[in-house]
## 1
Amino acid sequence: MKEQVKFCASHRPLSEESAEKLTTWHLPTKLLAMLLLAALLLTQLCGCAGREAAEEEETFYLYYTNADGTTLYQLAYAPDWLSNSSSKYRAEKVMESLVTAPEDLEGTPSDLTSLLAGDMFGKIELNSQDDKVTASVSLSEAYYDLTTAGQAMLRTGVSQSLFVSGGIDRVVLLAPSQTTVGQIDTVDSVEKSSRFSINQYGEGLYNDEVSVILYYLSEDGTALAKEIRTLELGMTESLSMAVVRTLIEGPQEKTHQSLIPSGTRVIDVVVEGDVCYVDLSAEFRKNFSGDEAREQLVIYSIVNSLCELRDVERVQFLIDGSRVSVYASAVRLDTALSADSSLVK
């Protein structure tokens, strides 16, 4: 991997030597840092190291992309406003900085581009509930013009920039509904607890690890059993898609069993408003076998798992892109379904 290029608040690049020292002194061991600071008056070398350590503590990161939207670049800044105590003020300044990519910076690609190009960004609002702060970022319909990878990079870059600015626990991306005039939909959301590994120069743009609750068949085969899993999201995979994929792959606990019929393929999983649309291949119905009780467990294994996600209240099934009236004989699929806790053991 190439060495990360760091920038100061004036958008002037630090020298390679300074950048190397900053990387070296970033989060040193507590003991070593204390010893160096204690020796500040003894040697000029230790004094320089102390100043460099302090400078590193004042930096935060912003994220940009390139013209064709295939790479995510991480730039370090040390703006004066970072010390402002208002989370709202810092969040607004972060979004202001993200809208326009810096130009003519040494060591960065000539086509450095904002993740929020054009008029995509509308406004940002902060709301607090139960001591948790959510930043709601309003986007225009231009969001839907992005590729899946572009949406993933926007999600990553905007959320991580806001988290590092301090005081924000969750980022929600909002955009006008594509199906209901005047309605605003949640198109994505990120928790601060999610872990991102960003590779700005090469393979594997990021990995996002999220803890979820999934439902499989219980050991006695009569009910749904809860299983807590940590899912790793790839660059182009949404959390709802990962949930369905993992249900098909099967449980980790030996006493649990998968309920999804063999051969089932995921065609698409999309969340619009509070409804998650799950489009599965024909094998999902064709390869099912069992009685009405088993039929319910198969369907609600998916429904209950998806309804554990923060923004999902109901699940609408599609088979090869079309609605069907019933799954086998008992469970109707022509309307969106809510979770059924009575099936959980």
## 2
Amino acid sequence: MQYSKLGNTGLIVSRLSFGAMTFGKGAGLFASVSKVEEDAAQTMIGKALDAGVHHDFNKSISGFHKALSFDDSDPEIWYNLGGAYYSVGKFDSAKIAWLQTLQLKPNHQQAQQGLRALPPHS
């Protein structure tokens, strides 16, 4: 099991505890846990985008999945995941990611364009 330091509290908690303590944005301790997760998600997104820029799409896909483990309600993560899948020819997975993007943000123009760019029968 992996353990992490909980902010500036000095407490060492398991990753499982981190997940159990996160109830969204709140006050006090829960706000700092939420901030830790937000920072971790942003770090993962940055790494995933960088991997995509360098054409390492499998690493990009992995990074976006890790970012989704912190925040699966962000349509931009889903959109970029779809783009990474598209880049490696995994069109069914790209479609799923772009449809999820549109569930979260129905007017997302780039996700709509991505769906139109898919080969027939994807």
## 3
Amino acid sequence: MSADFLNKDLGMPLWASTLMLPAGDFAAGPLGLDILASTFVFLAVILVPAVGYKWLRLNEVLAFWFAYTITRPLGASFADWLSVPAPYGDGLQLGTGPMSLVFGIVLAGVIAVIVIRHRSETAQNPPVLTASLAEPASGAAGDGSTGPIT
């Protein structure tokens, strides 16, 4: 099975984004699981492509898309458990606004740490222009010389 088949013929990105997001609500609602239980169900399901790829020789593209689609209901179930207020939620009920603010601050903090680390590593180890880029290839000057053109 090729990546082209999965990506173009089956439309995996569209399918994953559109159809799998409400799966967490379906597991918690009509299936009768509470929100935390549905989170653990999807946490177990996301191990299937990892095990399949690692030990059962599952195609890497199929394993990727399987895991990618399961992240949607897993994340939605966990977020619902943290934030959805009563009477709709049965979790911590911290509220969607406060949780959005907390996760937004955490996201901004993670991005800031990555940027700061990248800048400090670049300052300590500046990129080095290699000889192959600094000098033309042998005989590039057209006169048989091997040094740079002056």
## 4
Amino acid sequence: MDLNHRHQQQARLSASHAVVPEAHEAFLKGKHFANRLSPDSLEKAVRYFNDAIKADPTYAPAYAELAETYGWATASQFIPSQEGLAKAKSAALHALEIDPNLGEAYNTLAWVKYVHDWDFEGADQDFERALALSTAPRISTFGAATFSPNPDATMNPSTK
């Protein structure tokens, strides 16, 4: 995560939600382990994101990152797909109940809709929401370009 992105995320969080320090610390540890993409590190990431949620059940980014971690664990075949995708979808939906403007949650929800539900139209709509809202658009752009029926327009929104 680059410094500019971190400052944008912190500003967004502070503007919308008073962050519980213990929750944010666990969240950052979860992000650290989630980025390693190994079975052990993803398991630790899930634990830390759950610790963040336990410290602050209204901390939507922790649910969104938990959802993404379950998505990566499923895609990497570290956990069974039915279990992982159900947990990813549940965490993403919970994040969106708390913060309906959380692009990262839309990104994971779109991926689940595409690969599990075969809801291609819904997935495309959620990828577009993720692109519009995400503080980390490179992730959403990858998903949208990978699964969109019109990847050229997704990669270059000015062509829409």
